[in-house]
Amino acid sequence: MCPPGCLHSICETATRRGLLKAGFTLGLGAAAVTALPSVRPAEAAAPISFTDTVDLSHALYEGFPTFSGEKWFTVEHLVTFAKDKVNLNRWTIVEHSGTHMDAPIHFSADGMTADLIPIHDL
User: How many domains does the chain have?
Assistant: First the structure.
């Protein structure tokens, strides 16, 4: 998790020109990588295993930065603890809001949806 104010600071200093420059730099890097010889299957690295999990999630809030700059997440307070002794909210959210991982179907016409991916493959 980023320290408080980190994301806000990044959003204030990020510019379209800076993002385009970063995209161009990444594109050049990708082109250089594709020029490298490919690894034959026999030379592929052994599977990686791990024992620790690190949460990289950012807290989702109204006004969370989005790709389009539009508001993709809203909260409507339906019931409050002060009045009803319970909190109940209605969330409206675009599927690509906040920290998430896309299922293969997002990038492929015949990819698996999230519900079809075995948990041990995540």
Answer: 1
